[in-house]
């Protein structure tokens, strides 16, 4: 907890989702442009994908987490001089295993994400996104992209059973 109303920044846990990537049963992804309207597109993509996978009942929680991850990528991971009409710098991935679903957002920043801890003051407009991700998903984290690829992936896992 922050003390005396101060805000603390905490590094997030780093690591891959605890799932075998070769055992994925379904996967879908979409590119998102550097515009805040992309959050609505990500939600629509999530709805369509979950409907196809017969997971409509999970839409509210998954869409909230997707919205937060995409918003964070657009707000914090893109340089301020990134043209907002440039090609898609952010990518959303949805992956389904038999009993789990992972949503992952890839962005071009090498900076590790941080969560801000505020003193139960939810009146602040920003700083709550990763708290919501933590509250609505079963686990989450991030990892840097491998090889010559720049950037990172922030992921959230949902149990389906």
Shape, per Cα inertia axes: globular
Number of helices: 3
Largest sheet: 5 strands, antiparallel
Name the helix and strand elements from N-terminus to C-terminus, one letter apiece: EEHHEEEHEE
Structural description of this entry:
There is one protein chain. The protein has 161 residues and is of the alpha+beta class. The chain has one domain: 2-Layer Sandwich (Heat Shock Protein 90). Helix content is 26%, strand content 27%. The protein is built from three helices and seven strands, in the order E-E-H-H-E-E-E-H-E-E. It has helices spanning 38-52, 59-77, 129-136, and strands at residues 8-11, 26-32, 90-96, 100-107, 114-117, 139-144, 152-159. The strands form two sheets. The chain has a five-stranded antiparallel beta sheet, covered by helices on one side. It has a two-stranded antiparallel sheet with strand order 1-5. A hairpin with a 7-residue loop joins strand 6 (139-144) and strand 7. Helix 1 runs antiparallel to helix 2 and helix 2 packs antiparallel against helix 3. The longest helix has 19 residues, at 59-77. The model is unreliable at 1-12 (pLDDT under 50). Keywords: ATP-binding, Kinase, Nucleotide-binding, Serine/threonine-protein kinase, Transferase. InterPro entries: Anti-sigma-factor_SerPK (IPR050267), HATPase_C_sf (IPR036890), HATPase_dom (IPR003594). This is ATP-binding protein.
């Amino acid at each position: 907890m922050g003390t005396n109303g101060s805000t603390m920044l905490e590094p997030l846990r780093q690591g891959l989702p605890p799932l075998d990537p070769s055992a994925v049963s379904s996967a879908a992804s979409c590119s998102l442009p550097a515009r805040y309207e992309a959050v609505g597109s990500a939600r629509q993509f999530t709805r369509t994908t979950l409907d196809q996978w017969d997971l409509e009942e999970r839409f509210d929680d998954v869409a909230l987490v997707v919205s937060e991850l995409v918003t964070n990528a657009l707000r914090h991971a893109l340089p301020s001089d990134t043209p907002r009409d440039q090609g898609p710098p952010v990518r959303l991935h949805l992956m389904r295993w038999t009993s789990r679903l992972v949503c992952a957002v890839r962005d071009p920043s090498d900076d590790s994400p941080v969560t801000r801890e505020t003193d139960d003051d939810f009146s602040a407009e920003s700083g709550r996104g990763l708290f919501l991700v933590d509250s609505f998903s079963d686990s989450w984290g991030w990892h840097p992209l491998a090889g010559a690829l720049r950037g990172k992936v922030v992921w959230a896992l949902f149990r389906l059973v």
